[in-house]
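[audit] Reproducing an earlier prediction to check determinism. Same input, same settings, fresh worker. If the tokens differ from the archived copy the diff job will pick it up downstream; this log only records the rerun itself.
[audit] input (100 residues):
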Amino acid sequence: MDRLCSNTLNSWKKSLFFSICMVYYKQKEGETPMTKLQLEKRVAAVKTADAINAIEGAPVSDYAKKLSASWARGELTGEQMKAALLAYHKSIAAKAQSRA
């Protein structure tokens, strides 16, 4: 992985994922749907993560925004979102490395 992609991935790990992990409710398989309050907390967590990234100058991809919205609605678990984002960033890094 080249330095730029590595730095981007590290920045993402430190800001976006950390902020999202601060949410108060983690829906697990088989549990009842989220309440309005729980949904609001997740939406607030995503907005906080986006704000932190903006302050740090770390762009958030459209794909990450879509995943975050799905997570906020309870359509994805935190682990599913993390796995999808890591796979996405690794594929970007692999493409960049193959061009070098």
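[audit] rerun output stored. Observation attached for the diff report: The CA atoms of residues 20 and 45 lie 5 Å apart.
[audit] end
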